[in-house]
């Protein structure tokens, strides 16, 4: 058996509230296989983004085990690419230069930066806009640059926190199709946070529903839809049935919040 790409055992996270400690994450148990696409869903405040931030090395945790390829995660690293809902592009750099900036930090030469950045700009279908500044790009284009940047240094894992949450419905569907195309061609492990259950079913191999107070993984769903995925699948009986199951799990997991 090969080592899981990501392994989490008994992970707990507390925050200091104004009156008491808040148990944000409780005994999280999770394994992601190599090339697996897993989505985290759940009500607001269940700890989805906190968990992803911990995996990214941007937050600490109180106890438990957190490993990638069998090695402890002790901070941010080039083995994990991160894409947030906010595009976090440098406004004074062009689309290509934003990708090059990340590659320079990874230690590549100027020539390597140009070549690799250009390749990834083409990968996200922005080659005609390589020299455009962020202010000249639409929201979907900005997010494509952010994805190109995250993929450019070839991480083993892509961590995405509501990356399409700020986009209109049509652009969101286009970005979902683009992401599945990139994932199917280049195969890497993805941990994806979303509030959109339809999006989770469309993209994922597996969906983890989280409940609240404290945040914990309450249900796991395997997505048996064939690949490559397409938008026509969204109207199939199998797709709609799974979507209803996941929504029911989220509702059940949010009852603790409603009772407080």
TrEMBL record:
Q: What's the source species' lineage?
A: Bacteria, Pseudomonadati, Pseudomonadota, Alphaproteobacteria, Hyphomicrobiales
Q: What is the official name of this protein in its record?
A: ABC-transport protein, ATP-binding protein
Highest taxon listed in the record's lineage: Bacteria
Species name for this entry?
Answer: Rhizobium grahamii CCGE 502
Pinpoint the ABC transporter domain residues: 6-237
Q: Which family does it belong to?
A: Belongs to the ABC transporter superfamily.
**GO molecular function terms listed in the Swiss-Prot or TrEMBL record:** ATP binding; ATP hydrolysis activity
**Is Nucleotide-binding found in the keyword set?**
yes
Task: Give the CDD domains listed for this entry.
Answer: ABC_NrtD_SsuB_transporters
The protein's UniProt keywords, in alphabetical order, are:
ATP-binding, Nucleotide-binding, Transport
């Amino acid at each position: 058996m090969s080592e899981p790409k990501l392994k989490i055992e008994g992970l707990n996270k507390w925050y200091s509230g104004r009156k008491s400690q808040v148990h944000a994450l409780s005994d999280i148990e999770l394994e992601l296989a190599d090339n697996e696409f897993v989505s985290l869903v759940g009500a607001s405040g269940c700890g989805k983004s906190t968990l992803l931030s911990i995996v990214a090395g941007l937050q600490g945790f109180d106890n438990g085990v957190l490993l990638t390829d069998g090695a402890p995660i002790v901070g941010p690293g080039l083995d994990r690419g991160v894409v947030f809902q906010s595009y976090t592009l440098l406004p004074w750099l062009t689309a290509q230069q934003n990708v090059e900036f990340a590659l320079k930090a990874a230690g590549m030469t100027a020539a390597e930066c140009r070549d690799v950045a250009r390749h990834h700009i083409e990968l996200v279908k922005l080659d005609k806009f390589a020299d455009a500044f962020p202010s000249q790009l639409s929201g979907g284009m900005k997010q494509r640059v952010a994805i190109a940047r995250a993929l450019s240094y070839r991480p083993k894992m892509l961590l995405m926190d509501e990356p399409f949450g700020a986009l209109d419905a049509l652009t969101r569907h286009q970005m979902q199709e683009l992401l599945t195309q990139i994932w199917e061609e280049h195969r890497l492990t993805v941990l994806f946070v979303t509030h959109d259950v339809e999006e989770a079913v469309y993209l994922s191999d597996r969906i983890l529903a989280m409940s609240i107070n404290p945040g914990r993984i309450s249900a796991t769903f395997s997505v048996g839809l064939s690949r490559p995925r397409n938008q026509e699948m969204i109207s199939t009986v199998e797709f709609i049935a799974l979507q209803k199951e996941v929504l029911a799990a989220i509702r059940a997991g949010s009852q603790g919040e409603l009772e407080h």
